[in-house]
Amino acid sequence: MFIIKQLLETIVKALVDNPEMVKVNEITGEASIILELRVSPDDMGKVIGKQGRIAKAIRTVVKAAAIKENKRVVVEII
Questions:
Q1: Where are the beta strands (DSSP E) in the chain?
Q2: What is the domain range of residue 8?
Q3: Cα distance between residue 17 and residue 39, in whole Å
Q4: Quick one: pLDDT band at residue 60, thresholds 50, 70, 90?
Q5: Are the CB atoms for 5 and 71 separated by under 8 Å?
Q6: Nearest CA among 51, 53, 70 for reference residue 15
Q7: Which residues contact 49 (CB under 8 A, 6 or more apart)?
Q8: What dihedral do alpha carbons 48, 50, 51, 52 form, nearest 10°?
Q9: Residue 64 is part of a domain; what is its CATH number?
Q10: What is the signed CA dihedral for 22, 54, 58, 13, rounded to 10 degrees?
Q11: Which pLDDT tens digit goes with each residue over 29-47?
Q12: Measured between alpha carbons, how far is residue 45 from residues 30, 51, 55 in Å?
């Protein structure tokens, strides 16, 4: 699942002003993986977007990548 974690990091780092503050923590379960995304408080709006559209798009891309691994991925923005 390293590839999916790296994909999420790459997407978010391209969006934010402080890419060095982007941290992704991976919690692996039997059938699912939780990716906890942490960004600078100043960049939170850029990651979430208007009405959560960017966050939804990020989750969609990550879930599509996880289908190949037959895993369920949950992205939590903290």
A1: 23-28, 32-38, 72-77
A2: 2-77
A3: 10
A4: very high
A5: no
A6: 53
A7: 55, 57
A8: -20
A9: 3.30.300.20
A10: -30
A11: 888 899 999 999 999 999 9
A12: 32, 10, 10
Token pair listed for 15 = 């969006």
Query: Which pTM was predicted?
Result: 0.90
For the chain, how many structural domains are there in total?
1
Tokens for 44, please give them.
Answer: 């939170």
- Backbone φ and ψ for 75, nearest 5 degrees, come out as -105, 120
Backbone angles phi, psi at 24, to 5 degrees: -120, 125
Quick check: 73 and 2 in contact, CB under 8 A?
no
Judge contact between 48 and 37, C-beta under 8 A. Answer: no
